[in-house]
Amino acid sequence: MTEHSGVGSTEPLRSGGVGSAGAGVGTIVHQLRVEQKVFWRNRESAVFVFIFPVLLYVLLASVYGRRIEGYPSEEVLLAGLLGYGAANTAFAGLAISLVIRRESGLLKRLRATPLPPAQYLTAAVTSILVVFTLQTITLFAIGRIAFGAPLPHNAASVAMLIVIGVAGFGGLGFGAASLIRSAEGASAVVNVVLLPMAFVSGSFGPARHLPRVLQWVADVLPLKYYVDLAERVYLGGAHVWSKPGWVAMVLVWGLAGYVVAARRFRWEPRER
User: Fold this and answer.
1) What is the gyration radius of the CA atoms in the chain, in angstroms?
2) What integer pLDDT is reported at residue 269 of this predicted model?
3) In 148-211, where does DSSP find H-type helix?
4) Fewer beta carbons within 10 Å, N or C terminal of the chain?
5) What is the pLDDT of residue 232?
6) Is 71 strand, coil or helix?
7) What is the pTM of this model?
8) CA distance 187 to 191
9) Burial class (CB in 10 A: 0-12, 13-18, 19+), 235
10) What is the DSSP string of 214-253?
11) Cα distances (angstroms) measured from residue 38 to each of 9, 11, 51, 71, 266
12) CA-to-CA distance for 225 and 219, rounded, in angstroms?
């Protein structure tokens, strides 16, 4: 997964006063536009982050039986892939892109521009939120059109679920980016974490029949609780806040990632 050199272009920012609240919002909006342009122009990134969870859903929904534990399989898999999409987009996508930008020297150059670091990072997270929102809409649209899956009954809870996913797994993405040393190893490291976590957490199908030890591992992972939340919201029509403990588990993991990033995040390349 590569990054174009246009990331973080700040030409229009040099003439503006970024100290005021209005100018601060303006710089974030400008950087958000840049982040979106770079993301969609980078085909490798778009395939890895946006398209891959959608492809997995189509493949799995095509081969699974009619029902999974009493629910239509296409609905159970949609909820599971929604969880995988959150982790893949906010955790893996953010971690890989930040490491590549750091090791290429882009983050170091950004520090020399008038763009404040907090506003750059806010724009990066907001861009992830936009991508995951579009991905969620795409999953529901394909589920409805291709497999007859119903649309969610509680749109407000789905929206909150999206925000919770980006906040929680985005924190893990920042934490991972702070620990990964090389751009070459970034994709391997995050996938070694992401794919087993998705498997034991039920993203690719029911995990209740896994060996007990794997279930114990899943019980401490944030993705397991996020998938359970997605199933509760989508399959059961419940409010996302009906299980505050599950929400807290996802957000606590995200907070831990932000704490690691606050202590270890670097703007200069590690391998130079």
Assistant:
1) 19
2) 92
3) 155-179, 183-201
4) C
5) 95
6) strand
7) 0.89
8) 6
9) middle
10) HHHHHTT-HHHHHHHHHHHHHTT---GGG-HHHHHHHHHH
11) 10, 16, 16, 39, 22
12) 8
So what's the pLDDT on residue 20? 54
Sign for the CA dihedral angle at 193, 52, 82, 68 comes to negative
Please list the rounded mean pLDDT of every run of 10 residues in the chain (272 residues).
40 39 81 93 87 94 85 94 97 95 92 88 95 97 95 94 98 96 92 96 89 95 97 94 96 97 92 59
Which structure tokens are listed for 74? 């296409």
By CB atoms closer than 10 A (0-12, 13-18, 19+), residue 12 is: exposed
Distance (Å, whole) CA 20 – CA 18: 6
Q: What is the predicted pLDDT for the residue at 23?
A: 66
CA distance 227 to 179: 26
CB atoms within 10 A of CB 2: 12
DSSP, collapsed to helix, strand or coil, labels residue 3 as coil
65 vs 70, 74, 205, CA distance in Å? Answer: 11, 9, 11
CA angle 117, 120, 123 (to 5 degrees): 150
Neighbours of 89 (CB within 10 A): 28
User: Can you read off the two tokens belonging to residue 169?
Assistant: 């797994």
- What distance in Å separates the CA atoms of residue 120 and residue 117, rounded to the nearest whole number? 5
pLDDT at 21: 62
Alpha-carbon distance of 272 to 269, in angstroms, equals 6
